[in-house]
Design goal:
283 residues, alpha/beta, Rossmann fold, 2 domains, six-stranded mixed beta sheet, four-stranded antiparallel beta sheet, 11 helices, binds adenosine-5'-triphosphate, binds magnesium ion
Length: 283
C-alpha cells in the first residue's frame, strides 16, 4: 500500500531530515514510527500524502507515485492527522470543520451530516459539535483534527503523535478505535513516542535515528535489541516485564492474547510490577 524508496529530504537552511529511507507497508498493516525528537518522523509522514515534495527518492501509495500531479488522488486515499491540531483545524465551528472535507468531496448534505455525526461520535466530541473551535481545549482540538480526517473515510490513516495530550481514557479510546479501523482493513501509520502502546497495537515498527532507518520489522525484531532501543532514545515497553517474569515467553512470538493471559496470572497473584495497566486488546 505504501512504498518509500531511498527518500532524502533537506530543509531550506540545510538540516538533513531524511537520509535514504526505504520502507514498505502492506495494505491492512499497523505501523508505528518511533525515534527521538528531531529524528525525522514528521518529515517522513508528510511525504506520505505529498505535503512535502520529494527531493530525492520516491513515495508510492497504492501504486500511485506521490507528486504534485497526483496530490488530489493521493489525498482521497490518505488521511493525515497533524502533530499540532492548530495546523489542521480552521472552520468556525466543530461541525463545520468536520464537514469541510466531505463537502469538498462533493457529497450531499445528508451524507455530510451522517459522516460528521459518525466521526464526532468516534472521538467522543458529539456534545461539542456547535462550539466555536477557538473555545476548545488542546486535547479537544486534537480529537477534532482526528474526526475531520475520519469523516473522509480514507483507506490509509497517517497520524503524527495522535495520543499526545489526550487524557488516559481518550488515549485508550483512540487506540481502540484505530485498532477497530485497522481490523476493518484500514492501513494505519502512526508516529509515536508511546513505547507502551506500540506492542499492544502495532504489527510493524520502524525506528528512525538522525533521518535514517535504524531498524524496521516486527515487534520482536525491534524490541529485541535493547542497545539499539537505547541508542534511539527509547526504552523497552513496560509489557517487557512479562518477559522477565516468564522467561519461556522469550522463545515465542509475543501475541496480545498471550500477554493478556500472563497479565491475568500476574493480577491474580497481586503482582503487576511495572506493567502498565492499559486495557489489552486482541490483535
Ligand atoms: N520547517 C522546518 N525547517 C527547518 N528544519 C526543520 C523543519 N521542520 C523540521 N526541521 C528539522 O528536521 C529534523 C527532523 O524534524 P521532524 O519534525 O521530522 O522530527 P520528529 O522526529 O517528528 O521530531 P518530534 O519527535 O520532536 O516530533 C529536525 O532536525 C528538525 O529540527
Ligand atoms: Mg514530529
Amino acid at each position: 500500500m505504501i512504498r518509500v524508496e531511498d527518500l532524502c529530504f533537506t530543509y531550506p537552511g540545510g538540516t538533513v531530515a531524511l537520509d535514504g529511507v526505504s520502507l514498505e507497508v502492506p495494505e491492512g498493516s499497523f505501523l508505528a514510527i518511533m525515534g527521538a525528537n528531531g529524528s525525522g518522523k514528521s518529515t517522513l509522514l508528510k511525504h506520505l500524502n505529498g505535503l512535502l515534495a520529494t527531493q530525492a527518492g520516491s513515495v508510492h501509495i497504492a501504486d500511485i507515485e506521490v507528486n504534485g500531479k497526483s496530490f488530489d488522488e493521493v489525498n482521497r486515499i490518505v488521511g493525515f492527522v497533524f502533530q499540532d491540531p492548530n495546523d489542521q483545524i480552521f472552520a468556525p465551528t466543530v461541525r463545520e470543520d468536520i464537514g469541510y472535507g466531505p463537502r469538498n468531496l462533493g457529497l450531499d448534505e445528508v451524507e455530510i451530516a451522517r459522516r460528521v455525526e459518525k466521526a464526532a461520535g468516534q472521538v467522543a466530541i458529539t456534545e461539542l459539535l456547535d462550539r466555536p473551535i477557538h473555545h476548545l481545549s488542546y486535547g479537544q482540538k486534537k480529537r477534532l483534527s482526528i474526526a475531520g480526517v475520519l469523516a473522509m473515510e480514507p483507506r490509509v490513516l497517517v497520524l503524527d503523535e495522535p495520543t499526545a495530550s489526550l487524557d488516559p481514557m481518550g488515549e485508550r479510546r483512540l487506540m481502540r478505535l484505530l485498532h477497530e479501523l485497522n481490523r476493518g482493513g484500514m492501513t494505519v501509520v502512526m508516529a509515536t513516542h508511546d513505547v507502551d502502546l506500540v506492542p499492544l497495537y502495532a504489527r510493524q515498527v520502524c525506528l528512525l535515528r538522525a533521518g535514517r532507518l535504524a531498524v524496521s520489522g516486527g515487534l520482536r525484531e525491534v524490541f529485541g535489541d535493547q542497545e539499539l532501543i537505547e541508542r534511539c532514545h527509547l526504552r523497552l515497553p513496560r509489557i517487557s516485564y512479562l518477559f522477565e517474569m516468564f522467561p519461556e515467553l522469550s522463545e515465542l512470538p509475543l501475541t496480545v492474547g498471550m500477554a493478556r493471559r500472563k497479565l491475568e496470572e500476574l493480577l491474580e497473584r497481586g503482582d503487576t510490577g511495572p506493567v502498565s495497566p492499559v486495557e489489552l486488546c486482541e490483535n
